[in-house]
Design goal:
It is a single chain. The chain is of the alpha/beta class. Strand 18 and strand 19 form a beta hairpin. A nine-stranded mixed beta sheet has the order 4-3-5-6-7-8-9-14-13. Helix content is about 30%, strand content about 25%. It is built from eleven helices and 21 strands. It binds 5'-O-[hydroxy(phenylacetyl)phosphoryl]adenosine. 5'-O-[hydroxy(phenylacetyl)phosphoryl]adenosine binds near residues 233, 234, 299 and 325.
Length: about 425
């Protein structure tokens, strides 16, 4: 069901006009409030008045995660700090996280975007929604939470952590809708079996899955096991969080909420803009954000766009499932991990060589991470206890920086292959079925 047909079923022409007006206003605002953008535009001899229509967007520079890091923590904020009412953070490429600030209006728009997603999945005010994305700096939990409240359904802020308690709540509260990562949904099913429940005792009917890549085969498996319809929701913290794009009841592509987020697909090597149907890197411009608006943000997510109108009546462009990334970011149990973050932790500890390898795998439906690392010969010891303490120090440090548990494996000095060119730091044995 459409939530706001004025926006979702707009004609292409009207939407383009609206996007052009919003883009012009955005550029005008950024030129005067964010030195980073003013300088970039001056280098390109561009004035805000050069940007009048949405097609003019191609004149503008790209923004990257590195730009966010270089302007850490708040250099790209476009409003005074007193107007920011909340921050979230996502993984940076090194030790520094990426900080995202929201004004009150940004939060209102976010809630409305989530309500639009929920409505397109068929969630309504009679539904009981368990939000089992992490609450906290991650945008999944709080993002979904306020959207469910905005829609007027009942939200249960389950967060992550206690599966047994979660299953009891799903059962006793007759939860109809669950929001979590797709791999957690499969883990939940296994746990439901383990605790001896029968799936027919539950009232679940809809699943809202995202935060990590998944496939149509996984959808089929989840739908069959949990007796639900499983929908894809996409988003990223830098742009807002979940709710940038969503499937509809047709389950035939993910609609981008285009009156707020303007999408382009580029060739990640040449940065040339690619036509519909051709896979490349998704680039997004936040047309209405106030706290930290981004122009042509390179998401690194690989997908393709399709403008044919969908049978649900929504005229918003659809994108394919995310097929991969053009950088080396991993998503492990829903947490974004850059190998360079683990490298920074290892390099901070004098006991280790700057040599490591990450082995990512799946145990059942849960991701596992093993960090293979070489101890410097001068710190090697036969004292098993001392070696255990060192392992614990490294795993605690990784946990505190990345919020993820890793198994630490000490390997022989010199045994990690030294590469001549691009080193292969990661072996990902997970297969997306
Ligand atoms: O994962 C926001 C989110 C939360 C989306 C809950 C959906 C549900 P980040 O932690 O910043 O934000 O990670 C963003 O996760 O660039 C993609 O690579 C990946 N990603 C997110 N949703 C999907 C999806 C949240 N539906 C990064 N399919 C993005 C594939 C996804 N990948």
């Amino acid at each position: 069901m459409l939530w706001n047909s004025n926006k979702e079923a707009m004609s292409f022409e009207d939407r383009k006009k609206l996007q052009g007006v919003r883009l012009h206003k955005l550029v005008e605002r950024l030129y005067h409030s964010v030195p980073f953008y003013r300088q970039k535009m001056q280098e390109m001899n561009l004035l805000p008045s050069d940007i009048q229509t949405i097609e003019d967007i191609q004149k503008l520079p790209f923004t990257t995660k590195e730009d966010l890091r270089d302007n850490y923590p708040t250099g790209l904020f476009a409003v005074p700090k007193s107007e920011i009412v909340r921050v979230h953070a996502s993984s940076g490429t090194t030790g520094k996280p990426t900080i995202v600030g929201y004004t009150r209006r940004d939060l209102e728009i976010w809630s409305e975007c989530i309500a639009r997603c929920l409505s397109s999945f068929g969630v309504n005010r009679d539904d009981v929604v368990s939000v089992a994305y992490g609450y906290g700096l991650f945008t999944g939990g709080l993002g979904l939470h306020y959207g469910v409240e905005h829609l007027g359904a009942m939200v249960i802020p389950t967060s992550t952590g206690n599966t047994e308690k979660h299953i009891r709540l799903l059962h006793d509260m007759k939860v109809t809708t669950i929001a979590c990562t797709p791999s957690y949904a499969l883990h939940l099913y296994e746990s439901i079996q383990k605790y001896g429940y029968d799936m027919n005792e539950f009232s679940l009917r809809i699943g809202i899955f995202g935060g990590e890549p998944w496939t149509d085969n996984m959808r089929k498996e989840i739908e069959e096991k949990l007796h639900i319809k499983a929908y894809n929701i996409y988003g990223l913290s830098e742009i807002m969080g979940p709710g940038v794009a969503h499937e509809c009841e047709c389950q035939d592509g993910t609609h981008i909420i285009e009156d707020h987020f303007f999408p382009e697909i580029i060739d990640p090597e040449t940065c040339e803009v690619l036509p519909d149907g051709v896979q490349g890197e998704l680039v997004l411009t936040t047309l209405t954000k106030e706290g930290i608006p981004l122009i042509r943000y390179r998401t690194k997510d690989l997908t393709a766009l399709h403008h044919e109108v969908c049978s649900c009546g929504c005229t918003e462009v659809r994108m394919d499932r995310i097929m991969g990334r053009s950088d080396d970011m991993l998503i492990i149990r829903g947490i974004n991990v850059f190998p360079s973050q683990i490298e920074s932790v290892i390099l901070e500890m004098r006991e280790f060589e700057p040599q490591y390898q990450l082995i990512v795998d799946k145990k059942g439906n849960l991701d596992t991470l093993a960090v293979h690392v070489e101890v410097k010969p001068s710190f090697m010891s036969d004292d098993l206890n001392a070696m255990m303490v060192l392992k614990k120090q490294l795993s605690d440090r990784i946990k505190s920086v990345l919020s993820i548990s890793a198994e630490i494996v000490f390997v022989e000095p010199g045994s990690i292959e030294r590469s001549q060119g691009k080193s292969c730091r990661t072996i990902d044995n997970r297969k997306l079925i």
